[in-house]
């Protein structure tokens, strides 16, 4: 599991199958996982794979889309989301 704090920057992350990422839309991250690429920047999250305890907090006024929510993943939405896939 990788946990990225609010305001922190983590780049070129490789999330292997079964790996978990925990963060909010205040972090800046990018990388790839078995389903494709993902990024979070300036309150916008796209393409994250959330599983095995990984979670994303979408803060008020922020946006997330194309999120894959798999087994034991979490998504807390206080902003806006679209195209969320729950597996």
Notes on the protein architecture:
With 87 residues, the chain is mostly beta strands. The chain has one domain (2-86). The chain contains no helices and 13 strands. The chain has strands spanning 2-3, 9-14, 21-24, 28-33, 36-41, 44-46, 49-50, 55-58, 63-65, 68-69, 74-77, 80-82, 85-86. The chain has a 6-stranded mixed β-sheet, with no helix packed on it. A hairpin with a 2-residue loop joins β4 and β5. The radius of gyration is 11 Å and the shape is globular. The two termini are 20 Å apart. The mean pLDDT is 97. This is AIDA repeat-containing protein. Pfam families: AIDA.
Reconstruct the topology from this structure.
Layout: E1 2-3, E2 9-14, E3 21-24, E4 28-33, E5 36-41, E6 44-46, E7 49-50, E8 55-58, E9 63-65, E10 68-69, E11 74-77, E12 80-82, E13 85-86
Parallel strand pairs: 1-3, 2-4, 3-8, 6-9, 7-10, 8-11, 9-12, 10-13
Antiparallel strand pairs: 4-5, 5-6
Total helix count? 0
Strand order of the largest sheet: 2-4-5-6-9-12
Mean pLDDT: 97
- SSE class: mainly beta
Number of domains: 1
Instruction: Give the beta-strand count.
Output: 13
Our estimate of the beta-strand percent is over 45%
Q: H/E element string? A: EEEEEEEEEEEEE
**Fraction of residues in helix:** under 10%
Pfam families: AIDA (PF16168)
Organism: Escherichia marmotae
Protein name: AIDA repeat-containing protein
Could you give a quick summary of the protein structure above?
By secondary structure, this protein is mostly beta strands. It has one domain (2-86).
């Amino acid at each position: 599991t990788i946990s990225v704090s609010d305001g922190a920057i983590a780049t070129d992350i490789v999330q292997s199958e079964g790996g978990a990422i925990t963060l909010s839309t205040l972090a800046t991250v990018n990388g790839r996982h078995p389903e494709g690429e993902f990024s979070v920047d300036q309150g916008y999250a796209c393409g994250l794979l959330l599983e095995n305890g990984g979670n994303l907090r979408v803060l008020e006024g922020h946006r997330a889309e194309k999120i894959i929510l798999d087994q034991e993943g979490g998504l807390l939405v206080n902003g806006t989301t679209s195209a969320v896939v729950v597996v």
